[in-house]
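input
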Amino acid sequence: MLHARSLGLLVQTQSFGMTMWLGNVYGLTIFPQPKSFACVCILNAGRKIKDDSMNFRSIRASYIFAFLFIICLTTLAVAQSDDFGPLGQWQDAVRAANPAALKTFYSVAPPTQVAVGKVTLSADQDISFWTGLKPRGLKIAVTQSDAPSAGIKQIVMQVEVDSAGPPRHPVYITVGQVWQQQGDQWKIVALKRTDAMRLQQPASTDKDIYHPGTDAHAEIKEAIEHAGKEHKRVILVFGGNWCYDCHVLDLAFHRPDLAPVIEKNYEVVHVDIGQYDKNLDLAAQYNVPLKKGVPGLAVLDDKGKLLYSQTNGEFENARSLAPADLLVFLNKWKPAAR
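output
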């Protein structure tokens, strides 16, 4: 365990794709995690509440209260079951779009700290977000759940909402919550979430999409040969395993509404750019300016002729795309029917 009396940390979570600055904190304790976990800390400076038999009656404004939110995602990203009762009750309130019920789960003293990206919201704004989705269906996959100390519960989950709208389509939200036992009740004291996304967001970037040591030149040559035999086209996806949006795009390509289009019409080659120091000649050859960001895409015909190249970073922020956007792209560049 590491202890820091005056500590500034810059940490990033690939799950949320966001960076938080944890200013100078007195007495911040950091628990080291196994290598199989990716961690992010969310910190909000406020008041230090003295624990008086968990009644929180004594408040000293001269101290700093810090909510330390440690989110640890398993590398396998396997959904875990969770028997934490308050989470199930929160889920029921979200499913019912019941603002009064939801409000009972948010802490008042201290007030719940809500972060969406770099934006801080109130509890009421967060409640409005959930009720505004008007869920027709709700699925929750808990990717991490632990109790780092007595009276504290940390949960990370991916939420899929079949929204009655607007918008009228499934959306995905990644949520991290810190629950605190206050008397005989559990309250959310801190949370961080993404906006509602049209594409599923990966729990981690551990999947090996770009294989080290692969000869990309040979792979492209082989893909073109296969495309020629099967009347397909070739999609080159430049990126790296460290690239969060590359994993978003990979997940999207395996969606049941997109995968059949890709399988029938395309050969897909993932071109590893390392740390922007590999296969740069291929990026230049196929006119994919990596400085605009990755994933970077190019489409070739069955003879290797370049038909399309991503010159303006169109897929760089893949997490913000909708399935319909990708389907339009795939249909536009697929080979003409014979």
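quick obs: Confidence is low (pLDDT under 50) at residues 1-81.
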